[in-house]
Write a structure and sequence with these properties.
The protein is an alpha+beta fold and about 280 residues long. It has helices spanning about 5-25, 105-115, 120-135, 140-145, 145-170, 190-235, 240-255; strands at about 25-30, 35-40, 50, 60, 65-70, 75-85, 90-100, 175-190, 260-265, 270-275. The chain has three domains: about 20-70, no CATH class; about 75-190, 2-Layer Sandwich (Tetrahydropterin Synthase, Chain A); about 215-275, no CATH class.
C-alpha cells in the first residue's frame, strides 16, 4: 500500500507546530515541599490575574505565565532583637523563633491577597512590635530565669499573632497557621552584662569580707570567754598570775607529742621539772 506524499505534509506541519509551541511554553514543577501559584498575564490585552488552582505537580504553562513557589511545610523563622527595654529600662538581647506554615491548596489566595513578600510585609513587623511591647512589661530577671513567665510570654505573643491573622482573614483570606512562638534566649546586652559581672564580683567580695569579719569576731569572743574562764579558775584556786602561767605551761608540755613530765620539784615561783622524751 502506498502512502501519498500529500498525507505527510499535514503531519509534518502539525509536528512543527507542536515543537514550536513547546519552545514557547514552559513547565512548572514544584518539589515535594512546595506548591505553586500562577500569575497569568494575557498575551495581548487584559490584566494579570492569579489562577484559582494551585500547582502541585509538573504543569505546562503559557510563556506569559509565571509561577510563585511557596513552601508548605512548617517553617522555623528566627528573630534577633537587640537592646529591647524591660520594665526597669534594662536593655536586653532576645533570640526567638516562630513556627509558621502556609496552608496547602490556598497559595493562590495568599499570593492574590498578600503578595509574594507576605511574611516581610505583614507578619514580621507585627511580630517584632508585639515582642517589643511585651518585653517592656516584664522584669528582666523573670525573662532571663523564670520559666513560668517565659511560657506565658510566648503564649501571649502566639495568641496575639493568631488574632492578628484572623483579623486580616476576615477581610481577605490569609492562609497561614502560627503554630509556635518560643523564646530561645534572653540576655543583657554586652555593656549591661559587664556591669552585672562587676556588681556580682563586688557583692561576692563584700560577702567574703563579711564572713571573714564574722570569723574574727567569733574568735575574739572565744578568746574573751576563755580569758574569763581562766580568771575564774585563778580566783577559785587562789593562784597568782605567775602560778597560773606555770600551770598552763605544764599542760602544754604534757600534751606535747612525745613529752612526759617525770619529776616536778619545788613549789615556789620557779619550780623545776625533768622532761623525758
Amino acid at each position: 500500500m502506498k502512502v501519498s506524499g500529500k498525507v505527510w505534509i499535514p503531519a509534518g506541519i502539525i509536528t512543527a507546530v507542536l515543537v514550536a509551541s513547546l519552545a514557547f511554553f514552559s513547565f512548572v514543577n514544584p518539589s515535594y515541599d512546595e506548591e505553586a501559584a500562577l500569575k497569568m498575564k494575557p498575551i495581548f490585552f487584559g490584566n494579570t490575574r492569579v489562577d484559582d488552582e494551585p500547582v502541585n505537580s509538573i504543569t505546562l504553562v503559557a510563556p506569559t505565565t509565571t509561577a510563585v513557589y511557596f513552601n508548605i511545610l512548617p517553617q522555623k523563622m528566627q528573630f534577633q532583637f537587640d537592646d529591647l527595654l524591660s520594665n526597669d529600662n534594662t536593655p536586653l538581647d532576645v533570640n526567638m523563633y516562630m513556627i509558621i506554615q502556609v496552608k496547602k491548596g490556598q497559595t493562590p489566595d495568599l499570593l492574590r491577597n498578600y503578595g509574594e513578600n507576605w511574611f516581610e510585609n505583614f507578619i514580621e513587623p507585627y511580630f517584632r512590635n508585639k515582642v517589643r511591647e511585651y518585653v517592656s512589661s516584664c522584669s528582666p530577671f523573670d525573662l532571663m530565669s523564670n520559666r513560668e513567665v517565659l511560657a506565658k510570654f510566648d503564649d501571649r505573643i502566639k495568641q496575639s499573632m493568631r488574632n492578628y491573622v484572623a483579623a486580616l482573614s476576615r477581610k481577605a483570606n490569609f492562609p497561614i497557621d502560627i503554630q509556635q512562638v518560643i523564646t530561645d534566649r534572653v540576655m543583657p546586652n554586652k555593656e549591661q552584662l559587664e556591669e552585672m559581672n562587676k556588681t556580682a564580683a563586688s557583692i561576692q567580695a563584700k560577702q567574703t569580707q563579711e564572713k571573714r569579719a564574722e570569723m574574727e569576731l567569733a574568735r575574739a569572743k572565744a578568746e574573751r570567754n576563755k580569758a574569763v574562764a581562766d580568771k575564774a579558775y585563778m580566783t577559785e584556786l587562789n593562784l597568782s598570775p605567775a602560778q597560773f602561767i606555770q600551770l598552763r605551761a605544764w599542760d602544754v608540755i604534757e600534751k606535747k607529742n612525745g613529752a612526759n613530765i617525770d619529776v616536778l620539784i619545788g613549789g615556789g615561783e620557779t619550780p623545776m621539772w625533768n622532761i623525758r622524751r
